[in-house]
Amino acid sequence: MHRLLRIFFPFIHKKFITPILLLICLGTFAQDPFINTLTTDLNNHEAKELKEKIYLQTDKSFYISGEICWFKSYVVDASRNKPFNLSKVGYVELINRDQKPVLQGKISLQNGVGNGSFFIPLYLPSGSYKIRAYTSWMKNFGPEYFFEKNITVVNTMKRDRDSLVQKTPGFDIQFFPEGGNLVDGASSVIGFKAVDENGKGVNVEGDIVDQDKKTVAHFQSQQFGMGRFEMMATAGKEYKAYVRIAGNQLNVANFPAVSAKGYTLKVTSDQNNLTISTTSNYEGDYRPLYLLIHTRGLVKYANTLPLNHGKGSVTIPLTTMGEGISSITLFAANQQPVCERLFFRMPGNLDLAAQSEMEEYTTRKKVTATIHINNKSSDTSITSSLAVSVYRIDSLQTDESPDIRSYLYLSSDIKGNIEHPEFYFTHTGDQATAAIENLMLTQGWRRFKWDDVLQAKDPTFEYIPEWTGHVINAKISDRISGFPLENQTVYLAGPGIKSQLAGCISNKKGQLLFDLPHLLGSNLIVLQTENRTDSSYKLDVANPFSEKYAGSNFPAFKMNATLKEDLQFYNVGTQVQNVYLLNNLIKLKAPKYSDSTSFYGEPDKKFFLDDYTRFGTMEEVVREYVTGVSVHRAREHYTFRMMNDPQKIYFDQDPLVVLDGVPIFDATEVMHLDPMRIKKIEIVNRKYFLGSIVANGIFALYSYNNDMAGLQMNSHALILEYEGLQLQREFYSPKYDVTQKDFKRLPDFRNVLAWEPNIIVGKSGEAQISFYSSDRKGKYIGVVEGLSQNGVAGSTKFFFEVH
After folding, report:
1. Which of helix, strand or coil describes residue 731?
2. With the C-alpha atoms ordered 15, 17, 20, 23, is the resulting torsion angle positive or negative?
């Protein structure tokens, strides 16, 4: 809870927060003053940054142009991996290898969960793509923290030679001393990783040779091109790595330099304990070192580490470590970090099991699958959110893919690409243990740098979390000079069935923030100032999507003749669905509102003009029907004064007048409207707070066709097409029962039989889904993924055949 205090309760002084955190640290680690300061600084750092992670589950990873990509997002607290309700909007993009977005969408998040879809357009060229996801708050920490997943798209309607990328064969190998350093006279474990031009591991072997041509160590890779070996290095000597692939010498690689003085770190473990050892070659140095272990920023162990003749070690229970990746850092007596390495402890698993009623089905038959959660919890109120995808597997679409557990506890916490991260969670034994150790040695921690923690600087954030809904960022400036304008009142309207309006006063930088939580689908938005005559204002709306990219590698895209048959099936199936079932595929769920009111909620009074005798002018309508509003006329100019009901007096300033949700700053324009085009009038007879703006009541008019009753918009207003939150697309799945005989004459070539993103499993620990097989015969897989309320993630698969 302390991690939220500084953000949501800024009035609590820092001097009260720090002692609380210090007491927490002292209760567990009460040691040297530096240890107390270090743990406090780390806790403060995590409290100030309050990071999120997001995981995106897709229905599959291979698509034909014209198909629909379905996805579900899970947002968690980055330290505890528990569902996090900070952000209410998720951003999802499909980007090409040129780091350009080709599809973009905003999805609503509730309790850290949301779902949406992309229609893969027919013009999209074949190639490798990445689908990435993030929140606005995550943009503060850089695109390296965004979720990314490889997606393949094939356009069967055209041949695009540019998409057939052929990379020049390449090879790279890097060496990583355990703890970070090679030190003179000290034996060290050295991890290595060898990859090809696509970033995939390659099997290598080789020798480390010194400047005297003497072989001092031999190495051979294990899983995914990684491995480790041990050697003793000597300062002043130069070492080279002679690397061979398939028995052929391909490269001579550089080897890390050897430090004359320094510290080494070595970590070993068994089933119960973890032993951390260090060696120093500084003569006569008996000053103790400092050891800190944290899991995603949460301190697990902190203590001094005494040296005896340059050596020191400590053994701690393995249960001390947090689940997933922990960072083990050694600090020297001068309180600077000198060694660091990662350690992985297998996290708990949401023990999922799923199976279909039968192993084999004929075409167009009902399939019922049952999902079980076998974890036993004393808290029966804890629920789990799951999603299920069922699709055909073949030469194009395999059953291998990353899952939520491997992402939250592995991929999201270390640098670089991990080849088949699910391997480390699905395999056991010595081979799997060695593989995860090699991975920890060769890929570094990416959450923060120690300089940031030790300097204890308050971070600055460019983006705020969207904790109520979508926030639109805009800027007002002088059109001629380009300088930002301060203290300018600007309104942003989102006309529609449920009209929205937000107001803001610009800051010193001319920045404006508008909160529009219910802006759904494609909309027109209108920005305007209160001053309708001054054209020197310039209004700009910022792109809500991140324009920064991580620059990660895209897998090579290769197609060959052996895939032709499956591609033909996909091509025909997609065309059939788009021809015969298009109306079902594009069907969107209408938004469900708790009420039909506009931005101001329930008005104090409503006047439906059809309930009254119609008058020919708006002046007559307002004077005769609308109570609580006084009309004043001076020559040809009109003003309104509204009754302040709580105080039983009229406001001395104009109310906020809106037409179909758009502010109208001159009541005279309202009086010139055709009353026959106005459906109703609503008024709010009290002060209304619209963001940083205070309105002296609201006078709202609504036309029959939501078309502003023909009123021409202010020429100085900025009118834009703007995409709000995605409307939910309905997943189409026919039901072949006796009541729907019409389906019998239509072909059904679906390869995705089911997508259900909203499964909630509670006390019973069980859920069921039902769907129908299609005319496509073959092997099908059901993929189930999910996360419990207490942050336990898991996935499972089930299979069946259609004959």
Report:
1. coil
2. negative
